[in-house]
Amino acid sequence: MRIAFYSPNKPLGHPDPSGDQTIAQGLVEALHGAGYACREMSRFRARWFWREKGGWSRAVQGVVEALRQSRIWRPHLWLTYHTYYKAPDVIGPWLSRLLGIPYVLVQPMYGTKRRRRAETRPGFYLNRWALLGAHLAVINNRNDLAALERVVPLNRLAYVAPGIFPEMFVRCEAARRTVRAHWGFAAHDPVLLAVARFRPGVKRKSLHFLFHALARIGDNPKPWRLVVVGDGPLEAEMHRTAARRLGRRVVFVGRVARRELHAYYSAGDLFVFPGIRESLGMVYLEAQACGLPVVALREGGVDQVVWDGLTGILIPRRDPGAYAEAVRNLLQDEARRRFLGLKGVRYVEWYRNLHRQVRYLAGLLESLV
Questions:
Q1: Tell me, what's a Pfam family for it (predicted)?
Q2: How many Cα atoms sit within 13 Å of 46 on the Cβ side?
């Protein structure tokens, strides 16, 4: 089966990484691994295109180029990943009809309040048009279901749990020793790890919350260090805030290639990222696959990728004191950290394994074709 692929929010090769891009790349890789030919048909980035000079012209060019490629390659199915009001799919609905092939959306989103503002109204109606034309809409976040039911019939909706490739994130003791030695940490120094992009919005709020909460711990029960992996436009602000709150306890290591992240997860003892309004958070699955217990907030879709009480601790409200207490308790209890870490590895392998999820998705696509 040949699958035409399109990601309107961010092309597969976009230089600015994000969780959505990671999911899209994993989806394509998994489909290839399952024996399907999957080709990106357009790199047109639809995000807010109607607000930009020449945006509509570029959209038309994207449609024409994708049509040219499609007529040569002759796909059996069109699959668009993540359409929503900021980045609606303006290519797939047209081309799937012209080519006479099924049109599938993976991780679409819908919110009726977006039609109220002039700024978001074009994106709302374009996204609605895509949803109305879909033969199948596949969600990976249960929180999106209620809104989508307003526009997509139930018999065209399916749920496939989020997942990662567990083999990419395996705990490595040799890497742990190497990375910790590079930082000058002793073998038994407690190390907290966070992985995030330093960008405005919820990531910024989460990092500020984290620094504020950890400042309450002090050296109780013993001296610990925080390692932050990531970069972004707010890097200078994050450095200043962390230095003011945590002093020399925090180390920033910059951006790390995803294929190398397992070494940094392996060097840590506890994964700490609050996840304010986090849609899902692939970093939580990556950390658990490497045996790191998680401390996060019970917000957004975090509880769909962290098993509260079994692979980590989810704080029910934005309470820095409660967050700090959870971290402190796990720093004091090495046996519980080890138990949560082992359960996290098994949780990802059995319930959030992308190989398994894509086999189920492939069955749905085969039935449409």
A1: Glyco_trans_1_4
A2: 28
Those residues of the chain that have pLDDT short of 70 are: 220-221
Quote the Cα angle for 331-165-171, to 5°. Answer: 35
| Beta-carbon contacts of residue 240 (< 8 Å; ≥ 6 apart) | none
CA–CA distance, 238 with 232 (Å, rounded to integer): 10
- Among 289, 341, 290, CA closest to 312: 341
Would 2-163+353-368 and 166-351 be classified into the same CATH topology?
Answer: yes
Q: In CATH terms, is domain 2-163+353-368 a member of 3.40.50.300?
A: no
Q: Residue 283: left (phi > 0), alpha (psi -120 to 50), or beta?
A: alpha
* AA letter at 246: L
Domain chopping of the chain, boundaries: 2-163+353-368, 166-351
pTM of the prediction?
A: 0.89
Burial 353-365 (b: 16+ CB within 10 A, else e): bbebbbeebbeeb
Q: Rounded to a whole number, what is the distance in angstroms from the first to the last CA of the chain?
A: 8
The pLDDT of residue 218 is 79
The predicted structure's pLDDT at residue 22: 85
Sign of CA dihedral 257, 263, 264, 266: positive
Q: How far is the C-alpha of 39 from the C-alpha of 179, rounded, in Å?
A: 37
Cis peptide before 221 (omega within 30 of 0): yes
Query: pLDDT of 141-193, one tens digit each?
Result: 999 999 999 999 999 999 999 999 999 999 999 999 999 999 888 878 899 99
Instruction: Please give the Cα distance from 117 to 57 (Å, whole number).
Output: 23
Nearest Cα neighbor of 23 from 300, 282, 342, 339 is 282
| Fold assignment, 166-351 | Rossmann fold (3.40.50)
pLDDT tens, position by position, 85-114: 999 999 999 999 999 999 999 999 998 888
Length of the chain (residues): 369
Identify the pLDDT of residue 188.
82
Structure tokens at 345: 């590895």
Three-state SS for 23? helix
Question: What single letter denotes the amino acid at residue 147?
Answer: A
